[in-house]
Amino acid sequence: MDSRYWRLYLLTLVLGIGGSFQYGIQISIITFPAEVHVQRFVNHTWTLRYGAPLSDSNSKLVWSFVLAVLSLGGWAGAIHGGRLPVVYGRKKTLLFNNVVAIVAALLMIFCRMAKSFEMIFLGRFLYGYNIGLGLNVHLMYLGESSPKKLRGFLTLTGSIFIALGKLTGQIVGIKELMGTEELWPYLLALSGVPAVLQFVTLQFFPEAPRYLYIDKGDTEGAKQALQWLWQEDNLKVELEDMQEERESTRGEEAKTLRDALTSRSVRWQILTLALPCGGIQFCGINSLYFYAFDIFHESGVPENQMQHLALGIGATELTAVALCSFLIERIGRKKLMGYGYLTMGVTMTVLTVTLSLKHLNSWIPYLNIALIFCVICVYGLGPCGVSMALSADLFLQAWRPSAYVISGTINWLSMFMVGMLFGYVVDDLGPFCFLIFVAYTISSGAFLLGFVPETKGRTMVEITQDFDRLNYKNSAPLTSPTYCSTKF
């Protein structure tokens, strides 16, 4: 890595800690043993109020809502991720977002003292809002501050921080650390720490240069931000690229959500964002995390060792995503993600078969464990990392905020659906439930390899021109392709 960009690398660290890291830690931190302590607290509080404990069905419903409310908050945050960073800037939006996470952490700390499980609901909703808004703005800020030769690598660090957050949540949540009866409120409040760190450190960094130049028209401010971040004086090429992008949109303001959904000029970009990127929850990775404990149990793994085996899953994903960061600029987004999806589909097909035959031989359950690790490794090497980098490449400045709203909405609603329905699907279909994810991964892989142009090493305008060949395949645009808003 070029040492001249050390300040940009430091910005990457600051954005990651308060951005995608928060997503990863909230996904893993609420699982066992926190699940046991929260349910016990809910039952105890309910008994104190109403003189009788919750029934099993109501207890399950309350716990399901604790899990699902994060997705609802994430959706609300993703929706605001379109307007807030345009009106107030990327930096100010993230500073406000950290305050949301700090408030959520305080609710978690005092919920036991107040004897209110409703505070957990509200805290989880606010955490979701923080994640939904933070993920969008994190990637926008980083993509708009990076040179094109580093854009793929740096935006991919969003996936590295997600994997790091998952592993961190798994580690601190074990019984030997914070997964205890006394410490579980502080465990749930842990996201307040990275929020404080980002709130303090982000003050020392400039606003995103592309936002300053293209959205605000502050040429001098953008130049100073680039000089500070890149430690370069010769910025002619980058400034010309930003000028070309600004001229290509003819100074138009940020596009609305309706514009993004109806404009022919970004039709294929929206399809690419929605199918393999926004809908990544349907690749089955979170469901595989959920199902892993059942497979471990059926393989004869002692209960006190399951968490440690789960740590191995988290470490595998983190290692694979880190390796992806070194491959993405060599192999390219299209091949890594496309072949990654196809490999996941084939591996989950084999896993479906071996799960169905697990009782035929004593070694088959251990093969199932190996296949789980294989799927997670392939996910980290391809779809997990590339989905962050590819989505940052697809849109010009005017379209990017609304595009991230669409991506975030699809991501959070699909997470809500998978979280709420997967348990029932498992009950009805058993191991064949993974065939749903096989269909998604194979179709997404085929779509990427068959239609999506490569974005590696190309400017935003060049990428847009490549997509215009798909958007206007059978007809020529009436005006400049990058601006035309012809409807479907």
From TrEMBL:
Membrane spanning residue stretches: 7-25, 61-82, 94-115, 121-141, 153-172, 184-205, 268-289, 309-328, 340-357, 363-382, 403-423, 429-452
One GO CC annotation: sarcolemma
UniProt entry tagged with the keyword Cytoplasm: no
Major subcellular location class: membrane
Tree of life domain: Eukaryota
Entry keyword Transport: yes
Compartmental location: Membrane
Major facilitator superfamily (MFS) profile domain location: 12-456
Membrane topology type: Multi-pass membrane protein
Key words of the record: Membrane, Transmembrane, Transmembrane helix, Transport
Pfam families linked to this entry: Sugar_tr (PF00083)
PROSITE patterns in the record: MFS (PS50850)
GO aspect biological process, one term: fructose import across plasma membrane
One annotated GO molecular function: D-glucose transmembrane transporter activity
Family: Belongs to the major facilitator superfamily. Sugar transporter (TC 2.A.1.1) family.
Protein name per the record: Major facilitator superfamily (MFS) profile domain-containing protein
